[in-house]
Amino acid sequence: MNAHAALLDRPDASFPVAGLHGGISDEISTLLLRAATCVERDEANALDLMKQACSLLRPQGNIPPNRTSLSAGGLAPWQVKRLNIFIEQNISRPVSIEALASLSNLSTSYFSAAFKSTYGTSPHNHILICRVHHAKRLMLEGNTPLCEIALDCGLADQAHLSRVFRRITGTTPSAWRRHSRQMASDRTKADAIAKSSARSMPAHAF
Predict the structure, then answer these.
(1) What is the pLDDT of residues 105-127, one digit of tens each?
(2) CA dihedral 160, 166, 167, 170 (to 10 degrees)
(3) Which terminus, N or C, of the chain has the lesser number of Cβ atoms within 10 Å?
(4) Is pTM beyond 0.70 here?
């Protein structure tokens, strides 16, 4: 066995990358070592690993070095924050997995796995959940027609909104809106009764 093969067989093998924070350097060297060990039997996986290593070499702006590496196979805090802001700002537009992966400086395949590890669901399903939450806020704020709310949430039409909403919540937008309004009305009446009762009580009762 030559020196290179022996080094690759060591589970703790590491090639420090000059000029980088220790955590990032270790992660890059690990990715490159994994790529080297599988390049002959799985070129696609090796290429993906090398892309991940390259993504860590890209400038990260003002992101602290100790927050760049992924934690336990998931996304780093700075990536989660960046994704949440991006999704919220683009809730009325199509949001592709490719755009989210690029925003996180990860390959699409690795991003999908890391995203699910962090959020507990796929990027596509998470975006739909965010659209439904936005629809709920809009329904509570006024009497905007559901067809307009659907467009504001990045969905094709009212029928699309109804399908997605029912799949996520188990009920339709119309039924949810009626129920929420009834609950709000009941709370208002209960508060009014409580205030009226308090005013009618004799002063010595306090």
Answers:
(1) 999 999 999 999 999 999 999 99
(2) 180
(3) C
(4) no
